[in-house]
Structures are given as structure tokens and as C-alpha cells.
Design brief:
By secondary structure, the protein is an alpha/beta fold. It contains 16 helices and 16 strands. The protein has a domain of 283 residues: pyruvate-formate lyase- activating enzyme (Alpha-Beta Horseshoe), CATH 3.80.30. The strands form four sheets. Strands 9-10-8-7-6-5-4-1-11 form a nine-stranded mixed β-sheet, sandwiched between helices. Strands 12-13-14 form a three-stranded antiparallel β-sheet, with no helix packed on it. β15 and β16 form a beta hairpin.
Amino acid sequence: MDATDAVTEQRRAWLTAPIESGPAAGFGVYLHVPFCHHRCGYCDFAVAAVGGLDHRRREDLERRYVGALTADLARQVAAGRRAHAPAGTDDLEDRWPEVTSVFVGGGTPTLLAPEQLAAVIAAVGRELDLATEVEITVEANPETASPELFTALHEVGVDRLSIGAQSFTPHVLTTLEREHGPEGPLRAVRLARDAGIERLSLDLMYGTPGETAAQWEETLARVLLAGVDHVSAYALTIHAGTPFGRRVERGQLPMVDEDVQAERFASLGRVLGAGGFEHYEVANLARGSRHRSRHNLLYWRHGDYLGVGAGAHGHLAGRRWWSVRSTPRYVHAVESAGAAPWSEGPTPLAGSEVLDDEQRAAERLFLGLRVREGLHPNDLPPLDPLALEDALSAGLVEIACGRLRCTQQGWFLLDDAVERLTA
């Protein structure tokens, strides 16, 4: 190896020999279950509203989707890692690594019958090797909670639930078009604990038009009383083309106020922090490191994962791919493929892209700086000294123990921080 090659290899060590990021972060599987009773006005996810379907049509669609999901997983796994990796990564081992986390999201996965949802989760262990302490998370809406459902999930290995509370204020829940009342999430927490599922997270949304500061803090107080060990809290985002987006255009709903959302973000950390929560990521808080979401940390650490289901994304060594968002089209594509190999027959893929080193560096920064402790120095892409100085001077990032991390201000202005660092 000549001197030039040695320098190039050293400059790419953040990709080829990371300490915490990339392949060192673990390997995950994301399974998407798109079904919801109805689509909430703010939702921009790949969702199939089935509340208006007659029982027979809905049952048939759900049955076929579960079959397609498990068949798609089996085909992707059988194709091996090299079939998913970018060209030029021939040194990559074809065998998939142990699965360190599984996340079943949606939609509302718990709309499925317990035996169907259990079958989806069991398929991962059938197709791949699971790590001894694999984390298996399922998203659940409060109105779907039942002893039978949570017992079935516990029996198939689910050790974590992410329960969609959003708010504990009745009129905010009405604005967000949620189907549960303020007591629903608390009931779901009790039922989950009774079934043996101990790791519980509540999802919240702040900055909804009409929500006062006092109501947001009351929601946070109710979270503390619920006794959960994890909270995910997201600012309401209104996307063009959604029902909320159209209502804003017609003047029927005020646009979100970014200053108000910044105030809600600050009170989130203050109130829950006083209750023993660590604000470990922009939108996530946990009672100590052992209660952090390992699957989401995999994303933020720029790790690799299979994405299976309508609208699901996967990532491996800088290549990203995604499936069609339409549930019927996804089912049809998988069923049409039959037993054909994933690399040869029809697939439900809608597209893919391979990121170059510059794009991967920007992504590494954007994801890694979401975490409170930031990036390990070995995992940090090379930065222009002037760009780094600019971000430091703006008070958006700081260096602590050799790690680059966001300041509190930089967390809320993450896009600006990364833009400065990559200028």
C-alpha cells in the first residue's frame, strides 16, 4: 500500500472501522403493518384505513398482507447480504448477522388479530438468528389493548411496547382525531404489565393548535404517574397533501407555531428530567441507559437493517431501498413473485439509492448528532476545520471527551448544525 492509499484508508476509517456506528451498531429488522381504523389528519405514513371495509374484505386483506409480509422477509433473507449491498462490496460476508432488534410499526400493528401479529414476529426468528438479548418492540394504540393481545405478544418474545398516547388533554386528542380518551394509555400500560411486558414507552405529540403550556405540562405529569420507563415526543408536523395540510390552506386550522414548539421542547426535558428521565435523543427520553430504544439507536448510529412491508425502508452499507407504499400493490407484487428468488422475480421495491461518501458523511452527522452524547471520534467523518469552527461559534455543537455533540440549542436546530458542518 502506497502513502496515498494509506491516507485514503485512514480518511475512510469512520466507515470501514467504526466503534459504535455502522455495522458496530447491530442489525435490525423493521416490519411495517399499515392498517389503521382511519387515517389521522396529520398522518403522512404508508397507511391503509380499513375501518370502512366490511368484515370479509378486511379479513381477507389482512390475511393476504401477513402472508405477503412473511414471504417478502423470507425472500430478502434468502437472497443474502450481497444482493442488497452496493456494487464493490464483494468482501461483505453473505450471511446475515444476528438480529439485535426487531420493530413492528405502522399503521396500527395491534389491529391485527393476536395470532396474526404473533405469526409476523415469529417469522423473524424462523428466517434469521436472533441475539440472546434481542429487543422486540411493537407499536400499539390504546383502543386495541386487551389481555389476550398482550399475552400473545409476550409469549412470542415481545419485550417492549410503544403505546400511542399523543396527549392526555381531551380536546387535543379530538383535534388529532385519536380514537381513545385520556385514560386509554394508562389502561394499556396496566394490561401490558399484567401480561408480563415490562418495557413500556408512551408516544406524545406537542405543539397541536389549541394546546396550552399548562395542558402540555399536565400531559407530562400524567406520564410520570403512568410509571413507564421511556417516552418518545414529537413536534406536530403538518405535511402538504394531508387533511391537516388542506385545512391549513383553507384557513380552517392554524399552522404550527415554531416558537411554541420550542417552548414545549424545553419543558419536555425539564419536567420529565425532574422525574428521573434522561433526554438521550432529540425526541426520546428514558429512565437510564438500559431503557433506551435499542432499535432506534441502531438508526441513529447509522446501522444496517432490513425493511419489510408496504413503504418500509432498508439500509445496508450505504445502499437504501424502499417498497411501494400502496398495500394492495405490495401484496400483489409479492404474491406474483411466488417462489422466485428475490433477485430474479418480481419484487415490491419502489426504488433504491447508493449514497457516496459525502452523502454518507452528512447522514452520519445528522443521525449521530441526534443522540445526546453525539459521535465517537473514530466514527466521525473528516470535517473542514473552518466549518467546524463555524458550528462551534454558533453554539450549535460542542466537543466533550473527544466526542462531537449538539448543544441544547443545536438539538432544536439540527438541520442548521449539519448544514454548517458540511458547508
